[in-house]
Amino acid sequence: MTIQERKKSLKSLGKFLNQFNVNGSTAQKDVPFNDIFFPALNQLIDRAYESNAWFTKPNVLFALSSWSDALQEDKINQWFDMYSFNENKQPQTIGVVMAGNIPLVGLHDFISVLMAGHKIKAKLSSNDKVLLPMLAKYLTYVEPRFKDYIEFVDGRLTDIDAVIATGSDNTARYFDYYFGKYPNIVRHNRNSIAVLQGNEIDEELSLLADDMMLYFGLGCRNVSKIFVPKDYDFNSIFKALLKYKDLINYTKYANNYDYNKAVYLMSVDVEVRNSLLDNGLVLLKQDVHYASPIGTIFYEFYENIDDVKKIIKQDAEKIQAVVSHIDFDEAIPFGASQVPQLWDYADGVDTMQFLLAL
Question: What pTM, to 2 d.p., does this model score?
Answer without folding.
Answer: 0.94
